[in-house]
Amino acid sequence: MKNLTSLIFAVVVLFTASCTPKNQQTKTTQQSPNFVVIFIDDMGYGDPCCYGGTGYSTPNIDKLAAEGMRFTNFYAAQPVCSASRAGLLTGCYPNRIGISGALFPYSKVGINPDETTIAEMLKEKGYATGIYGKWHLGHHNAFLPLQNGFDEYVGLPYSNDMWPLSNTGQKLPEGHDRLKNPPLPVMHNNDVLFTINSWEEQDTLTTLYTEKAVDFINRNANQPFFLYLPHSMAHIPLGVSDKFRGKSEQGLYGDVMMEIDWSVGQIEKVLAENGLAENTLIIFTTDNGPWLNFGNHAGSAGGLREGKTTSWEGGQRVPFIIKWPGKTPAGTICNKLGCAIDILPSFAEIAETSLPDLDIDGTSIAELWKGNTTANPRETILFYYGKNNLNGVRKGNWKLVLPHTWASYNTEPGRDGNGGKRIQMTVETPELYNMMRDPGEQYNVIEYYPEKAAELMQVVEKARAELGDLNVGMEKGSGNRDIGRL
């Protein structure tokens, strides 16, 4: 009888296994988590509703935060497009690898093939890798995603305003610099899929990227994957589908935020449908702060000073949400320092893969993601901008702003896609701010805490020696590497 019972049990187990969907079997046996990085363009610190956004709703982003962890002191690698993306994907301060500012359709440079991206690192562990959205690390073949670790790519090779039209889709006068740009290409792998030739056609981008990302998850549900979803929105010119046009109280920008939120919901939905939600780590963040001179077509820095392309908090401090079921304690807030360059080494630790051979600047913050309140993996943040200008450093709750010039938004903004003028301003002597009491950087307290300024200057001198600082005439340091060239 005992042998008969054992035989029946074995047959039942075998039958159950054979009838279990393939992706369901994978879910129970797959050890390596999937990684999803949703990267928004020009969205400010104060734009998601869980960070204070008003006039529209972001229920899916808010749900992500409620089920995961929200950071309050997380920074983009630099406060502008290409540099920020380079930092996220390579774990390096962008000036270390020669990438600064934003690359253009006429640029003949891009990411150096010697650099290791997150996609290349994870492919060594058998991950499928896909990018759907804005690349902006070089549009020539050698610099495109498929040559840098990604299996699939659909999206724009650079910003959606780099076309031969105005920011409102109008024809430009003869001789305008933008007339040198080709029609805006939507790429499929290494080829142009189609071009965008009107403002109305930009309305399709958020939905296009989302549908491609959903399809990627469906097709790769039976193996570990890395999905990189860098949306073109909310960069001007703003585009939104009919699903959300006119739905918010804040106008077109609010409509765009609602469609971005819908996209987050679609990703969560397809993960759940494939039984992958419990084994997928999702990150939601942005490349830099808001482009404030575009007024009602720009986001909010949430009370922080200035915005995109500046080294003040509004330019580089960004929202960051992580959901990692079973690891990240739900509904928590982390006030520790973090930076986009920390994502690569954190993924390396979690996936148990090796770090790049070349030096990186990021450090794993996986312990923070796990809710370890005693961990403090990142002590400092370097605020580089331009070709190689060190404009400030942060250590703990203190930020030292170094002498530099910037284009301020402290003037009347534009409207409806037209940018307002910016004014040049200069920090003449070092300034010190207490980030705990003064995140808006209004009160320079350097005369009260000279010892703190001296402590942070030690960080400055070390950074200058390794990475240079054009503000003091140091073009390079000992650790700078070359950008990729044709």
TrEMBL record:
Family stated for the protein in its record: Belongs to the sulfatase family.
Enumerate the UniProt keywords alphabetically.
Hydrolase
**InterPro entries found in the cross-reference section:** Alkaline_phosphatase_core_sf, Sulfatase, Sulfatase_N
Q: Which residues form the Sulfatase N-terminal domain?
A: 33-351
Q: Indicate what this protein is called per its UniProt record.
A: Arylsulfatase
Which Gene Ontology terms cover its molecular function? arylsulfatase activity
Q: Which PANTHER family does this entry report, sorted A to Z?
A: ARYLSULFATASE FAMILY MEMBER, ENDO-4-O-SULFATASE
Q: What is the lineage of its organism?
A: Bacteria, Pseudomonadati, Bacteroidota, Bacteroidia, Marinilabiliales
Tell me the organism. Answer: Draconibacterium sediminis
Q: Which domain of life is it from?
A: Bacteria
